[in-house]
Amino acid sequence: MAQKNKAGTKKQGKRLNVWLILALILLYGLVQAGIMTGIIGGFYENVLMNIGIYIILTVSLHLIIGITGQFSIGHAGFLAIGAYVSAIVTMKLDGPFYLAVIAAGLAAILAGILVGLPTLRLKGDYLAIATLGFGEIVRIVLLNIPYVGGASGMRVSHMTNWTILFVAVVATVWVIYNLTTSAHGRALLAIREDEVAAESMGVHLTYYKVLAFAIGAFFAGIAGALYAHNFYQINPGNFGFLKSFEILVFVVLGGLGSLSGAVLSATFLSIVNTLLQSFPDIRMILYSLVLILVMLYRPQGLMGNKEITDLWPFTRRAREVGER
Amino acid sequence: MEWLQQLINGISLGAIYALIALGYTMVYGIVKLINFAHGDVFMLGAFVGFYSLTVLHLGLIPSLLLSMAVTSVIGVVIERVAYRRLRNSPRVAALTTAIGVSFFIEYTMIFARSAKPEAYPDLFSGQQFELFGASFRVEALYILIIAVLLMIILQWIVHSTKIGKAMRAVSYDAEAARLMGISVDRTISWTFALGSALAGAAGVIFGLYYTRIDPLMGLIPGLKAFIAAVLGGIGSIPGAMVGGLLLGLVETLVSALGFSLMRDAVAFIILILILLFLPTGLFGKNVREKV
Amino acid sequence: MSRILETKDLSIAFGGLKAVQNVNLFLDQGELVALIGPNGAGKTTVFNMLTGVYAPTSGEIIFDGKRIDGTAPHRLTRLGIARTFQNIRLFHELTVLDNVRVAYQVNTHHTFIDSIFRLPRFWQEEGRMREESLALLETMGLKQYAGEKARNLPYGAQRRLEIARALATRPKLLLLDEPAAGMNPQETRELMQTIEHVRKTFGLTVLLIEHDMSLVMGISERIYVLDHGQLIATGSPAEVRTNPRVIEAYLGEVAKDALA
């Protein structure tokens, strides 16, 4: 009986994956057709770019904060490194864009490890301040390098397109989903829950924390490359604490520990961002108020650590008994 | 005599850091929260002082007192509205809220009066005084007198008054203090009031010395002051004073050596080094996690 | 019988306070030994040194013929030392199955690359891990809770899960820190039977901390008594029970309890 049940759920799971892949291809194709025929105009295309970039950023920070429980508020630092490295590759070295994207991710990994190793012995609020410090140091260093234009920044060609954005978003979510639902992801969750107990169960704290930071940084770096090549100009001011705060709000609002929550809140808030583009002050007041209210009345965020698939009994059950 | 001038610059900057750091350290000592909005209370203090000097035409000392009174009320309100409910939540939730409060204050201020900077009135019309052959701005003298006076008053409050004793008791063991009949809520409110008043005063003298103020001015000095508090050993009042002075001196030194643009980065590098090699700071106590 | 664990003059001081002084104890392969003593005697501190949470100020710890003092906790787990916590430290937001699987991962050989790209080794290892973890839950009577979050379990089940989680690391030496704290006599009896059972099934050596002397009399082969950070007696349950210094240490505590 149990055997039969198991085979049944596996088959159902496979079928679900097939539907998911079909839906993704359909989504990609429809949007691509829309862009090519001009039904989706420049403005909406730009909204899509922003949504995609913010999904990557939010999901990558979700891995660090929501899954591993490491309160990092310097995520814009990795974004900045990705943006600048990719811009150097395309603008200064005339390299191809895809190479720039990969270089951006790798440079951010390096930064992630570099920050990670010394600071990960710190806990909670101390780690927060240290990561904030990292973000600020990156910004200040960029301000002081004439090669990348100092305060006035760099001109960057528009190269980010729907295809590369779509691939990057899907890859990010896929990798982080796969990592989270594996032994390695469980080690990260264990660190979030109780570091002392995790260590006693054989979880190598430094290794896993650096792993989370490195992977989170990698995708933030990729987001940086897409970000830089979506605008025509980058400067250190784009990557201040404000940016880190924005990503933090997205993660917290989505729910600490919820991947689908991160995707949903990034999508929703990017649209809000666009709507409030002409009212930056009101946007920040709104964000800070929402953040305070969420913390006071629903500290687990909108989704808590639930996933949207928990809405359907079959997928929820599969998650609970560890089949997915 | 340039080094003497730099020394005075460093001490003046350090005194401002120290005043802000005191608020961080007192609040951290009692509720284990990095009050991220503290830098913005400092900013509000600078603006209250500014309006008091320019609109109400009050003198320096009345403006200073008014600024301290207003910021202490703001500090108490922030604690009451945003932090009290989270006292037993994970510290990360409280920290996130504090970051939210910080941004809320900054952008409400920008919304209310735009982001444009203001110039503090020049109360001393550029007067200088001579010492050992070097000349100094009179403001530096005022900063030092005000800062030292406030720190002496704080020491007196903490060590010789009833509320000071309650503060020390609550920071040592809140539960035991409660059993002894101390109102923990009231003591925490007092701590926020005192810390915020000092930040308000720091805002006014910052305005006097550096003349330029704006709604986002609190972030960097706030972070620096936090670093000063960590350097001195968070929770320790003498530590905050020493840490503030040290940081002010180091930053001035870095600027004087010609790396002025890297000044802000240096502070964060100090922070990371301190956290790694001397996590309890210069005057901190070692606390062990219970397993 | 071979010696699996031995300490030599194990001591630790916190600031000026000497929490544990010159503790010499040993365990032979397959033994069940209890470490007892009044509250605050330093029992958990000894555990924390044995599991690498604290580094001893002086003295040696030898496990399986190797010196291990100062080794990081996660390494010790891989060497074969597992523990439970007195004040239950489960991963509360994870399911019961995941709690066990976190511990089980020390026995798996896939890397995060396998996990990210869902390579064959991932399916192989995760499948094995899941089967064996569920089997372990069954042994510990927790299988019906597999999909529940750990924090929703009844108290007794949480205590059992602590043990299951420790067993999942496949230890040679199991350290149990007051596993019966807060349980009623019936639950305690059942728990002691379970401990006996897993010890036999897995061929374990067990060091058991207990505050209540009567609990361990039935199942332990030898007993160490700790008071004020020092060993004051050792021997069979019968010997320890009649030792005047032990009686004094415990009586002193009874007197304190009576006064409080």
Automatic annotation (TrEMBL), chain A:
**UniProt entry keywords in alphabetical sequence:** Cell membrane, Membrane, Transmembrane, Transmembrane helix
User: Does this UniProt record's set of keywords contain DNA repair?
Assistant: no
Q: Key word Transmembrane helix present in the record?
A: yes
Q: Which GO terms describe its cellular component?
A: plasma membrane
Spans through the membrane: 20-41, 47-65, 72-91, 97-117, 126-147, 159-179, 210-227, 247-272, 284-300
- Principal subcellular localization: membrane
Q: Where in the cell is it found?
A: Cell membrane
> InterPro entries, from UniProt?
ABC_transp_permease, LivM-like
GO molecular function annotations of the record: branched-chain amino acid transmembrane transporter activity
Q: From the Swiss-Prot or TrEMBL record, give the protein name.
A: Branched-chain amino acid transport system permease protein LivM
What topology does the record note for this protein and the membrane?
Multi-pass membrane protein
UniProtKB/TrEMBL annotation, chain B:
Quote one Gene Ontology molecular function term: L-valine transmembrane transporter activity
- Can the keyword Cell inner membrane be found in this entry's annotation? yes
- By its UniProt entry, which InterPro entries does this protein fall under? ABC_transp_permease, BCAA_transport_permease
* Database matches in CDD domains: TM_PBP1_LivH_like
Superkingdom assignment: Bacteria
**Compartments (UniProt record):** Cell membrane
**GO CC terms of this entry:** plasma membrane
Q: Which residues cross the membrane?
A: 6-29, 64-83, 92-112, 140-158, 188-210, 265-284
Tell me the keywords, alphabetical order: Amino-acid transport, Cell inner membrane, Cell membrane, Membrane, Transmembrane, Transmembrane helix, Transport
Topology within the bilayer: Multi-pass membrane protein
Biological process annotations from GO = D-alanine transmembrane transport; L-alanine transport; L-isoleucine import across plasma membrane
Q: Which family does it belong to?
A: Belongs to the binding-protein-dependent transport system permease family. LivHM subfamily.
Entry protein name: Branched-chain amino acid transport system permease protein LivH
UniProtKB/TrEMBL annotation, chain C:
Q: What is this protein called?
A: Branched-chain amino acid transport ATP-binding protein LivG
The family database entries (PANTHER family) matched by this protein are listed as: AMINO ACID ABC TRANSPORTER ATP-BINDING PROTEIN, CONSERVED COMPONENT OF ABC TRANSPORTER FOR NATURAL AMINO ACIDS-RELATED
- UniProt-listed Pfam families: ABC_tran (PF00005), BCA_ABC_TP_C (PF12399)
Q: Which SUPFAM superfamilies match?
A: P-loop containing nucleoside triphosphate hydrolases
Checking InterPro entries in the record gives: AAA+_ATPase, ABC_AA/LPS_Transport, ABC_transporter-like_ATP-bd, BCA_ABC_TP_C, P-loop_NTPase
**GO BP: any one term:** L-isoleucine import across plasma membrane
Concerning PROSITE patterns, the annotation shows: ABC_TRANSPORTER_2
Name the lineage: Bacteria, Bacillati, Bacillota, Bacilli, Bacillales
**Where in the numbering of this chain does the ABC transporter domain appear?**
5-253
Tell me which GO cellular component terms the UniProt record holds.
Answer: plasma membrane
The organism's place on the tree of life at top rank: Bacteria
Keywords (alphabetical) are:
ATP-binding, Nucleotide-binding, Transport
Q: Which SMART domains match?
A: AAA (SM00382)
The record's annotation in CDD domains points to: ABC_Mj1267_LivG_branched
Molecular-function GO terms, alphabetical: ATP binding; ATP hydrolysis activity; L-isoleucine transmembrane transporter activity; L-phenylalanine transmembrane transporter activity; L-valine transmembrane transporter activity
Enumerate the Gene3D superfamilies for this protein: P-loop containing nucleotide triphosphate hydrolases
